[in-house]
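Changelog-adjacent note: as of this version, every example in the card shows the full chain rather than a window. The one below runs 461 residues end to end.
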Amino acid sequence: MQLQVWANFVKREKSTAQPLHAADTVLDVKLKNDCSVYDPTFLISGAIEADILPINYCAWSGFYYFVRNAVYRTNQICELICEMDVLATFKGDILSQTFYIERAASNYNVNIYDPYVAQIANNVQINETSSDVFPGWYVDGTYLVRVIGNNATGSARNGITTYVMDANRLEFFIKAMFTDSNFSILTDEVVKSFFNPFQYVLSVMWFPFSISFFTGGSGTAQNVFVGWFDTKVTAVPITTITKGFISSVARPPVVYNDFRDNAANWSTVRLLIPGVGVQYINPIEMGFESLRAAYNIDIVTGEITVYLRPNAGGRALALLGQFSGHLGVPVQIGQLTANLASAAGNAISALGSLVTGNVGDALGQAVSVTTDLCQPTPSTNGTSGNIAAIQSTGGQLVMSQYIRSGTAPAVNEVGRPVMHADLLSKYHGYVKCSGASCIIKGSLEVKRRIDAYLNGGFYIE
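Full-length structure tokens:
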């Protein structure tokens, strides 16, 4: 029988590779008695030891063998102890079948979590993107003053008119409220003490937007009325009670182009939403798309509701989050209030003293009434907020991605995840199956060897 032999043949043990060139030589051999056909021992007569030693691969009767050992006997007889290369011998059968493939060096899915890629501690890369500045954003801001009263154009809603003012106009308005000549109809000092124009001011709210943001670039300035009284101060009234706009921010550029860019244990995404604060965004839900934030502003309370959605046609209605906050900041304004409750109590007490004949005490309490009315108590109207906190955001959505560094995937050595059943002939390089049971025309021992290679990882070459 003839045995094809190759000297110094190079291949992996767990590989389907077959010799690409003809055998180095063909030897006349005999099978040793009582040997296995799958793991045979070939006897070579007249062999020279130096010629036999380089032989490490051979083929016989359509089977491929690794040479496990070469033993030189007496009378110039040499033994080649071989083991079947089951992957090369049954290569065609193996590649023609479909198996569940866990990992492979080709046709893999980079977005499947890969446990073979390890994180490097204390090594984080940070990328940021920001949106365009919000429409109408004005860092100095604008004040919305809500007062009880109507004006010449009848802009009041439920008896309340909202005026939009800049800082200079608001200061002028406050000074006018403290100028008694603006209220000449009130000539008596005692009556003036009962009249407090600040009681007609329901709220003053600062917003980080321009006047045109609220007026739409139109609107005519009118005299501001508090109650029935004309302050002679002009400002533009607005009738709307809500405003809205949409802002979009792109996701920071991907770093790895694989599962790590979206995996929560690898990547952390934070979004600064002006008026709300910093919110964590699930990178898996966000995907690789930009985001759009729809702002709805209540100009009465300064509260906002922000709806966060992907900025993509197919997922434009998907809601990633709903957030509440404030873009309006309440502003305190000073006022003077007469101590009417105390004055009324003193007046009643004084009347009782006159009835009982205690004239001196009655006169003293009457003086107290006059003093209370002539010396009103300073106080404030409204609460204060943090304007600087809103100004510091710059009127932009800012997205920050913190992504951990990791080891480079060893694709050629252990592949990357595939995790589905497929035809093996579509793959090359490293492949690892799961639950493979190859169908071949061979012994049970050969089948077990093939299955062990497929499920433990092998190379299609």
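Structural remarks: The chain is about 20% helix and 40% strand.
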